[in-house]
Write a structure and sequence with these properties.
Layout lengths: L1 H15 L7 E6 L2 E4 H17 L3 E5 L3 E3 L3 E12 L1 H5 L6 E8 L2 E9 L4 E6 L4 E3 L2 E2 L12 E4 L9 H11 L5 E3 L4 H9 L5 E5 L3 H13 L3 E3 L12 E5 L4 H15 L2
Parallel strand pairs: 3-5, 11-12, 11-13
Antiparallel strand pairs: 1-2, 3-4, 5-6, 6-7, 7-8, 8-9, 9-10, 13-15, 14-15
Enzyme class: hydrolase
GO molecular function, one term: metal ion binding
Organism: Pseudoxanthomonas dokdonensis
Length: about 260
């Protein structure tokens, strides 16, 4: 998984230095972009993974799902998380590779090439950044916490809900950040840089590695309404655990107020 992420990341770095030459098109709408770099990176990741586990199923953002002979095990891959950042010359983007066994993520790698940060976690073996052990933050109140979130862009749902969440939370916390890449935000919760992160309208490949990174760093991962996390439920909230209930209360209040 590390080899796959780093090999794809090296190719993406080369493309990042030649953005004007990339072919780009819209996927589901004008603000949802995909490039040749995304597609090449996914092929690269898949090629490396299949060398050692050819029978595993595969779910990728660009190529979709394919069922292997061993359907209990599935690779879940986002070859370029933060495509818009990438295409606009912002270095906050990464490669996501996860392994799920019978629906549970048991290993995850997030590689942020432009920052040279490699996050690795395996069930029961901790979370690591470039070889150093990670722990989530210990901040226990909202007022001392920095949160991260995803902001719905053009064509995405839940704009009124997000606006209400911001109205409720912005006056209660030390700050709210939006990097534009789920891979970055979830890894940074694991690293203790953010205290929590939530987003809706996500896919499994956006969040899968981050879930185990945060859990193995001592944090908590649920759905955005506090229920047990469903990788295919299109939303997530991860935190250091200490502020999880406090954040959930505010998100639930916002949901109740807008009738979501």
């Amino acid at each position: 998984m590390i080899e796959a992420a780093k090999t794809a990341g090296a190719g993406l770095r080369r493309h990042f230095g030649q953005l004007s030459a990339l072919g780009v098109r819209a996927k589901s709408g004008p603000a949802d972009l995909v490039s040749i770099a995304d597609e090449e990176a996914e092929r690269c990741v898949r090629r490396v993974l299949e060398k050692t586990r050819p029978g595993y199923s595969f779910l990728g953002e660009e190529g979709g799902a394919s069922i292997g002979g061993d359907d209990a095990n599935s690779w879940i891959v986002d070859p370029l998380d933060g495509t818009t950042n990438f295409l606009f010359g912002c270095p906050l983007w990464g490669v996501n590779v996860a392994l799920a066994r019978e629906g549970q993520v048991i290993a995850g790698v997030t590689y942020l090439p432009m920052l040279d940060e490699l996050y690795v976690a395996e069930l029961g073996k901790g979370c690591w950044l470039n070889g150093g052990r990670l722990r989530v933050s210990s901040r226990a109140t909202l007022v001392e916490s920095v949160l991260a979130c995803g902001i719905p862009f053009a064509g995405k749902p839940d704009h009124p809900l997000f606006a209400r969440e911001m109205a409720l939370l912005s006056g209660q916390v030390a700050g709210i950040r939006r990097t534009g890449a789920c891979a970055v935000d979830m890894a940074w919760v694991a690293a203790g840089r953010w205290d929590a992160y939530w987003e809706r309208a996500l896919n499994a490949w956006d969040m899968a590695p981050g879930v185990i990174l945060v859990k193995e760093a001592g944090g908590v991962a649920t759905s955005a309404d506090g229920r047990a996390l469903d990788l295919y439920g299109n939303n997530v909230c991860v935190s250091n655990g200490a502020i999880h209930g406090l954040l959930m209360a505010q998100l639930q209040q916002a949901s109740n107020e807008v009738g979501a």
